[in-house]
Write a structure and sequence with these properties.
- By secondary structure, the chain is an alpha+beta fold.
- It is built from two helices and eight strands.
């Protein structure tokens, strides 16, 4: 079993993907963003998560790959996803099989352009 970090919206595995299978690796990390599709994403937001992931991984360069370090990266990325939700870059997916609102309760926005999701509005 490879090292892994699992949060609500971020999963990181110390593994490579080969033939649609995770193969343990000591030099490759695989990132799975929002596996339950709780949020609605656009390409720019996904790219921001990947850039933040690269930045966090680079901060641990030269250190041993440990369960603790992987969990720190995963936790920091989960907080980053929350920030994306709060700024409106991503939104809750009301068609998701899961409605947990684990990143905070949404407030409904009265906007005709918003169809099937809720966004977090800051006061």
């Amino acid at each position: 079993m490879p090292l892994k970090s699992t949060t609500r919206h971020i999963r990181i595995f110390a593994a490579a993907i080969e033939n649609d299978e995770l193969v343990p690796s000591t030099d490759t990390l695989t990132l799975d963003i929002d596996p339950d599709n709780e949020l609605l994403w656009n390409e720019a937001s996904i790219e921001r998560v990947y850039r933040k992931f690269d930045e966090l991984v680079a901060a641990y360069e030269g250190e041993d790959l440990t369960d603790y370090n992987l969990r720190r990266i995963g936790s920091d990325l989960e907080h980053f996803v929350r920030a994306l939700l709060q700024e409106g870059s991503v939104s809750y997916n009301l068609n998701s099989r899961v409605r947990n609102y684990s990143l905070g309760l949404p407030r409904v926005v009265d906007d005709a352009e918003i169809d099937n999701h809720l966004i977090i509005q800051q006061d």
